[in-house]
Records
---
Amino acid sequence: MSSEAAVPATARSTSWQWPALGVLAVLVLGAATRALDKNVPEWFSGSDLAKAIEFPIYAIALGLLGNVVLTVTGLRDRLAGGFRTEFFIKTGLVLLGASINLKVIVTAAGPAIVQGIVLISTVFLFTWWLGGRFGLDDRLRALLSAAVSICGVSAAIAAAGAVQAKREQLAYSASMVIVFALPSIFILPALASALGLSPEVAGAWIGGNIDTTAAVTAAGTIVGENALAVATIVKVTQNALIGIVVVALTAWFAFRIERRPGAERPGLGELWRRFPKFVLGFVASSVIATWYLTTVGADEGKAVIGVANDLRTWFLILAFVSIGLEFRVASLKEAGWRPIAVFATATVANVLLALGLATVLFSGFTVT
């Protein structure tokens, strides 16, 4: 008798149904997230906070709510096969590459590249060191370091794939990014005005410091059009460096963190096996988008890239919904207060260093 015949017919018929229902639950919650993301700013048109809140907040909140409902009803474990967090995240990051025009970065903002490299390297290493002093798990250290030094949620997602972090650690890191980014929307423009910073310096400070694109846009808009232009370029530059950091993290964890004492040194084959292949898709989509924009008109190119960005948003919404559905409170209790202290301290260091770099690199810089 074959192994397939040995499985009861009822079991075979339902083996795909529960995961399918899980995917359906994710899609329904994702649609609700998208509706909130689009409509809340209109419902509260006079609120800057409503405009600044990003979809990860709604997605994780609805995912957590669904988590509670499914747990109480006893359905969560049955539907868990449909919570395809890894697939949604990787697809979303590949599509993120399409929004990064390498030509614009190289030709329009040389200072942004210098600032991005110095800021990311320094803040990442400082956060990694501080996390070690506080005794954090190495994977959580990697996520927090990437999030605070590069570009928030997207960087944490990429780092999570490189170091094989737990989903709870990713949810924790993403939540802290959002919590710290929201007040920055109002605090940094106020400080920029108090310090008498030029719009360009203020924009570089905002773009290099605030960890989410929507929050950068909101803060830059408060300061002015020139500040927004510089802030956007600086933020895009830092986004483009995600791939380099992921490669470094993959190598570090393969050759140092997870290498057992006395074990043979891993070869390049092991590095390739562990390397998150979706990063190649991220780079490829960026190169293709950069080339494509040189072959079509500005309006046509903007429309096509807009479609890719919309798809990216959808996949990341589904990813964060899935994170909420898979979230377990016990893991956060184990983390405790130390990650918050590390992230807060690193954020202060990032604020000060970004201000210094912006002042040095963008004084006298003008948007043309």
---
Amino acid sequence: MPFIELFGHKMHYEEQGSGNAILLLHGNPSSGYSWRKVMPALAKYGRAIAIDHMGFGKSDKPHIEYSFFQHATFLEKFIEKMGLKNITLIIQDWGSALGFDYAARHEDNVRGIMFYEAIIKPFNTWAEFPKTDADDKSRDLFRAMRQGGKGGPGWKLNVEENVFITQLLPNLLAIPLPEAEMDEYRKPFKKPEWRIPIWRFVKEIPIAGDPADMTVTVGKYSAAMTRSNLPKLLIWSSSGATLGQEHVEWLRQNFRNLTIVRIGSGVHFFQDSNVNEFLQAFAEWFKKI
């Protein structure tokens, strides 16, 4: 089981294949395990590497804040210590924010970006924040999960009651998984203190200017992607939880050198629910870049 030490903490990763890096960055609440179905096929095209962000999966769970900026620092050091060059990024959810941020600051080390269910720009208002139901219950839940600091209402929902894992994750996966696979998704968050990274990521979604530092950071990388000629591939589903038709149209008009592929009835984890479409879209795009 491969680990690399970063700033005194061990980060877990898996890799298959050889050549230029294909770096897979997972979101919240997940781990590198979510890429297990696509890694073997991706390894035909390069050195496919899936990390567990610090505090997630099999990586260490140090007593840190788990801010976006700490995750970004760990990612940058991982790439540096592993000597990864000419990277193709495959990014989703918070992995997309980390990947876009890295690409905006290190464009010369990035070959292309495949993304989906991504954080593409700050949400100016709560009305822009996606909802997965007609009566705003999902949006209301996210509002509640962001309330207060440690020990507050959001902390209780995420850390003490484990709402993200027990209520949201099964719906986001879109397909029923064998119990052993579901347990792999749940295992890294079994103890309340292990759920702090989930809580922090929820708090850091830039909505209506809050938090201010993430609003600035996401705004910067979003603007950088509108100027960058890096090849980009968006895969999306009309039943997706994060990116709907309006977001796709915004991307079509604003992100340069963008290929858009619509897939079937995926919700959030296309690498688990839409494996064949995922791999076909990647293969056709990758051979052109």
---
Amino acid sequence: MNTLDKGTDTKGIAAIAENSDPSRTGEAIRRSVKLAGGMDWLTPGQTVVIKPALNSAGKFPFTTSPVSCAELVRMCLERGAGRVYVADEMGYEHTILKHRACGKFAGFDKDKTIQSFKKTGIYDAVTKVGEEMNASDRIHITTFREEGWRRYVFGDGDGEYSSNEFTLYNQWVHRQLKHAEKWSGKKACRKYIPRFFDSKLKKDKPGFYVPKLLDKADHIINVFRISSHLWSHYTMAIKNWVGIMRPDDRVWMHQLNYLKNNRHVGNELDRDDPIRTEPLYHEQLADLHLPHIKKERLCVSDATQIILSGGPDGTDRPFYRANLILAASDIIAADVAGLAILRYGTLKAPDGLLGHYEPQPAGWVEAASGLVKDLIWPENKNVYRGTDSKLCDPEFSNWDWVAIQRARELGLGVKHPDNLQLFFDEKESPFAVSGEKRDWITEDALREPKYELISS
């Protein structure tokens, strides 16, 4: 997927297959990837980085499914990839106390991310593929810490089609904090937390630290989860790139948690409009993709099981068995179609939420209090609970989420529902999508956006 040319309308593809047989999930992944355009972009000898969502050591669907990682590794090797990396960096809450915030590599035996690859089953699944194909020397499972990060400063060519400035920029964060409101509507007074990225050269530059591993890749595959999220309301392909950040950058970004966004204040929206409850850092998520966007070829999600409440590391409800596989050509198509799948569970599925939602923790104090309660009464799940109201609003457009709006402005994929092509496996296929799911997902994914993109 390439940055949009100014004034053009890039087509996006989202392909969906249905599968209720766990033994055939790999085949369903192959089928959805084929429907999304295949992997003709990969030629023999090239390097591929597969980026899963390894936010914790929890097993699928709290993290990316081992089956999806393993099957995509197999497909890359079959096409002659010279080297396939499976790499991520866990959430800083799991690593920052054990490893350095600046990303120093502690070695394979001590690294928390590599330990979690093993605990989730991803390590064994991918390793098995290498052994079966006699290609173990062409596979490497690692953390971004191994090769480290480098400083990346946005230039004139980045986001040139955006009408607003970069958000990974300390002056932008200063302004957001100055006018910050809590989700409750009260004034939020927070002192700006500086970051090493700016202090090192004593200059305020828009940018962040990017993994050196992504620099050496010819192609990148985004293997995301479909889930509700405690802070972000939902997490999919766009947010999966938080995992490429150096831990100190992630801490810096998360100072914007639990604050209302000011994105549409100039458009005279009501102060209580639901769109404003999205956290401010949603403005920053799309910017994370800019340094390597031309290498991001494919987005894939095993949506056989998804999380409808809480997340990312826990939930107060059983997993919803959507039994779907999604492949998409770009991060916008992936999130729009992924949201349709998630919303089928929150709105339509008889074993889902049926439109009933409960508020998520609305601040640090409430979250911390819930964490203490969970330590004492773990069955109550006071932290990882709740579903955002917009996920249960049948009239809300998937194109209107702030992260997706920002990605559309930056030209990181399909820009409007008129240009999104949805493909479902055919009726005669063993992975055909049921008529009810097909119709509902189509209507939801193609719903017209309500909010205007930010313009100068």
---
Amino acid sequence: MNADLGVEIRGQGSGERGDAGSLDARALRGRFPALGRLINGHRLVYLDNAATTHKPLAVLDAIERHYRLSNANVHRGVHTLAEEATAAYETCRHRVARFVGAADARQVVITRNATEALNLVARGWGARLGPGDEVVTTEMEHHSNLVPWIMLARERGVTLRHVPVTDDGELDLAAFARLLSARTRVVAVTAMSNVLGTINPVPEIAEMARRVGAVVVVDGAQSVPHLPVDFATLGADFLAFSAHKAYGPTGVGFLVGRLERLEEVEPVWGGGEMIREVHLDRATWNGLPHRLEAGTPNIAGAAAFPSALDLFEELGLGPVRVHEQGLVAYALDRLSSLGFLRVHGPLDPARRGGLVSFTDPDIHPHDQAQVLDNLGVAVRAGHHCAQPLMRRLGETATVRASFGVYSDHDDVDALVDGLMAARRYFGS
């Protein structure tokens, strides 16, 4: 193992195409209009699902249907359109609660995205923290689960601690145990790394945090759309994720929390539905979850997201996980067979989600991504909003290929062919 997490992958399968699972990815692609595009005369091979997923026709139709037939503001009107819009908006809340295993729909706060949900916790719950209190995050966090805590530390004098990442791309739980103390008030951790694909043992981490009385904040942006989740047994106090990474619209996210913890969150934004009574010099707040939802939300997006959840209920998150794990195993095998890539993250496909991140020592990731795009293959190149982890890897950037329910072995083959084309183009 290299100290910079660059690992040489061996023995990751037979190299045969095999079956990525029970999902018919090619048939599923037919439900996603954007995937029928040609890019520079090539079939679009979309491998940027960790950034955002495409939207099925059912979601697009639901957005249009809302604006065509039921466009109105929510919670305030008594006319038919307002009642229809409110019913659709609240249906989203109830469906999300069921999807993640929350017992009460009041546990679901609708936000703009996972980033806003994490900021809401850091600012709204973190308002009770001060000098002497400690927040533990990790080296593998997305900036959305680092920057809000950095801002809190600047404003309130909180001390930040960080769990290191091991050479094989896992969190160092022994080091985590040493970081915990009676001063630890918050443990903020991603359930799945958006760079390494590492699936973190959140229940174990949460149990360790609870021994010192810490609140557990989980970034589920990458995990919720890909892995079965049960909030009741996850051990988290707060869970954040976005609709747009789960085949839903952009501009809609969710903060799922324990009711007793959500009650402790101070409203960050004022006005609109979050109030109960307002005087010129004072105000009282509404009950959960509305006290944390100020102003007019993305009503159409919320109304459409249940159509994406219908897809998950049809397919089942278990089969989705099997499908993506099979793709990762195949991708790791194909990429390692090239002999010139450094692939980052755990060696075992069972320990990682549906993405692979790698570098070619002779070609910059942005150049690789450009060649791939010319061939119709869409990947992400850059630091992936995880600059501390990039420094740990000894990289400035990587190429990341991430899979969805409509990805298959042909997509992996197109990726590998594109990487070989990049080597030929740059004379490597």
